[in-house]
Amino acid sequence: MKNTKEKLKIFEALSDETRLKIVECLLKGERCVCKIIPFVKRTQSTVSIQLAKLESLGIVSSERNGKFIAYRIKNKKVIDVLKCLK
Questions:
Q1: CB under 8 Å to 46, separation ≥6 — which residues?
Q2: What's the predicted TM-score (pTM) here?
Q3: Which structural domains are found in the chain, ordered by start?
Q4: DSSP-derived secondary structure for 47-81
Q5: For the segment 12-71, what is each residue's pLDDT rounded down to a tens digit?
Q6: Which own/partner pairs from 51-55 qualify as long-range (CB within 8 Å, at least 24 positions apart)?
């Protein structure tokens, strides 16, 4: 049952275009919001909202260093899912 819930979280996260683009950007490594915005072509507030959603779903994690917040993929299964879609 836990495995099913984890799969549902992954698919929920990737079902939104902006969240999918954010995750694709993070496939290249850790990024701050300022590096993600140009990649997804959305406003800062939209990107921040979607990053918060991805964090709540356990897909990404963040680490604060002063004003800088770095985001990275937390759930490595997301990477496997996206590799299968290439």
A1: 18
A2: 0.90
A3: 2-84 (1.10.10.10)
A4: HHHHHHHHHHTTSEEEEEETTEEEEEE--HHHHHH
A5: 889 999 999 999 999 999 999 999 999 999 999 999 999 999 999 999 999 998 888 999
A6: 51/22, 53/13, 53/16, 53/19, 54/13, 54/19, 54/22, 54/23
